[in-house]
Request: fold
Amino acid sequence: QKAGIGAPFENPEEFLYHSRKNDAAFVTHISNTKKKPNNIVFSRIFDNEILDMFEFSVQNFNSNFIKANIPVNSKPCIFF
Reply:
């Protein structure tokens, strides 16, 4: 059994697997490794193919900035 998604740019099949399993068109992968600390990858998927992938490095994160009451069964939304 795998511990999680590996490097998404090296093995996109795992992204596609999770997209099909959850019927999702947008997949996010967050990792923290020695080679790439505080890393987040966003990918858009259509018809079981990856349209694009964006990789970001998170720096100076302030958790006090996030203050939201998210109701149950709401649609996901990401703010930057």
Remarks:
- The radius of gyration is 14 Å.
- Helices lie at 13-22.
- The chain has one helix and three strands.
- The beta strands are 26-31, 39-46, 49-57.
